[in-house]
Design goal:
Number of strands: 9
Strand content: 25-35%
CATH architecture of the domain at 24-126 and 168-209: Roll
Bound molecules: flavin mononucleotide
Order of helices and strands: HEEEEHEEHHHEEE
Helix content: 25-40%
Shape: globular
Number of helices: 5
Length: about 210
């Protein structure tokens, strides 16, 4: 398999330190809006990297369900592999890649569970079958067959034909950011990279990184 000649030239846009907004969360929202408007598939899909207590990193895609002045919210099974990693180490990283815009955003921070009433509210907005699925799937556990999973889902649906309560093991996390990097692809691999960090007073400052 020859992969050597697969390469893309990045020419679309540029990014200067000056044009970046003072608050990286606002800058993120600006880029996310542009990604949504440009008809990118799954613009809210983000890679979530966690680390277990042996120092082994792992990553997977999850969907961003809310961004606010505090951080980035996603939903999952608290007993999954990522949930176990988070209970051992709350330091995580997020990565968004919007290929059509030749953009990447990297975020590092600390993750914590959101309040239960917020998880209840989001859970109740999910489609019925997804709510049943949250009960049926012991996410990340080994299962002996798909058939058993479907049978479990059917029995849970019989138990909860209308209202499905949120399982205690399912809910939201918020990633509170301490670092952002906005990457815009540029010609000749001389990409624009603007990083935001927090100073000692908790104010964001930004600097340009070498590509
Ligand atoms: C596009 C896409 C979106 C996904 N969204 C979520 C999500 O929001 N929450 C979630 O728990 N898993 C989501 N998954 C599944 C995860 O990538 C992963 O398989 C699952 O969470 C188990 O991960 P873990 O074993 O590391 O805990 C998504 C997968 C893809 C490809």
């Amino acid at each position: 398999m020859d992969l050597h000649n697969i390469r893309e030239e990045y020419t679309k846009q540029q990014l200067s330190k000056k044009e970046c907004l003072d608050n990286p969360l606002t800058q993120f929202e600006k880029w996310l809006n542009e990604a949504i408007k440009s008809d990118i598939k799954e613009p809210t899909a983000m890679n979530l990297a966690t680390v277990n207590d042996s120092g082994q990193p792992s990553s997977r895609i999850v969907l961003l369900k809310e961004v606010n002045s505090q951080g980035f919210i996603f939903f999952t099974n608290y007993l999954s592999q990522k949930g176990k990693n988070i209970s051992q180490n709350s330091l995580v990283a997020l990565n968004f890649f919007w290929q059509e815009l030749q953009r990447q955003v990297r975020i590092e921070g600390k993750v914590k569970k959101i309040p239960e009433d917020q998880s209840d509210e989001y859970f109740s907005s999910r489609p019925y079958t997804s709510r049943i699925g949250a009960w049926a799937s012991k996410q990340s556990a080994v299962i002996s067959s798909k058939k058993l999973l479907l049978a479990k889902a059917a029995s849970i649906a019989a138990k909860y034909p209308f209202y499905v309560p949120r399982p205690a093991h399912w809910g939201g996390y918020i990633v509170v950011p301490s670092m952002f990097e906005f990457w815009q692809g540029r010609p000749s691999r001389l990409h624009d990279r603007i990083r935001y960090l927090l100073d000692q007073n908790g104010n964001w400052y930004r600097e340009r990184l070498s590509p």
